[in-house]
Amino acid sequence: MKFRRLTRFGIVFSLSLIASAASSACAAGDELPKRRPGLWRISTIAPEIGMQTNEVCIEEGDSIIGAQDENCAKPSVSQAKDQTIVTIECGPTHSRDVTSLLFTGDFRNWYRAQSRMTANGARAGFTINATFLSERCTK
C-alpha cells in the first residue's frame, strides 16, 4: 500500500513536471534551471509506467519542477559543477515525503532529470529526457 501511494505520487509528480506552467519560487542564488521557451519532446521513464512521451509547449517563466503543494517546504536548490540538485519535502514534519531531482543539460536544446522519491520508507524514481523541437508551439 505504501509503495502504491509512492508510485501514484511519482506518476502525478512526473506528469506535473511535464505540464507545469507555474513560476519558480526560489530566491536568487537558488536558481532552478530555466528551459528555453517553445515546443519540447519530453519522455518520462519509470518502472511503474514504462515510457511516456509527450510534446509540450513550455512558456517563458514555466517552472521545471511544477507547481508545489501548499504542504511542501520551499525547494532546496544547489549546484555541483554542471548539475543542479533540487530537494522537495512535503507533508507533516513527522512524516515527510522527500523527492530529490538531479538535473543536467543545457536547457536550451536538451536536459535530463533523474528523481528519487521516498515516502513512508518506500522508494521510487523516474527519469525525464527532454529535447527541444521548435520555438513555435503547435496548437
Task: Reconstruct the topology from this structure.
Elements lengths: L1 H18 L18 E9 L3 E9 L17 E5 L2 E8 L6 E9 L4 E10 L2 E13 L5
Antiparallel strand pairs: 1-2, 1-7, 3-4, 4-5, 5-6, 6-7
Summarize it.
This protein has one helix spanning 2-19; strands at residues 38-46, 50-58, 76-80, 83-90, 97-105, 110-119, 122-134.
Give structural notes:
Helices cover about 15% and strands about 45% of the residues. The protein has one helix spanning about 1-20; strands at about 40-45, 50-60, 75-80, 85-90, 95-105, 110-120, 120-135. It is mainly β. The chain has one domain (about 1-135). Strands 2-1-7-6-5-4-3 form a seven-stranded antiparallel β-sheet, covered by helices on one side. The protein is globular and about 45 Å long. Strand 4 (about 85-90) and strand 5 (about 95-105) form a beta hairpin. It starts with a helix and ends in a 5-residue tail after the last strand.
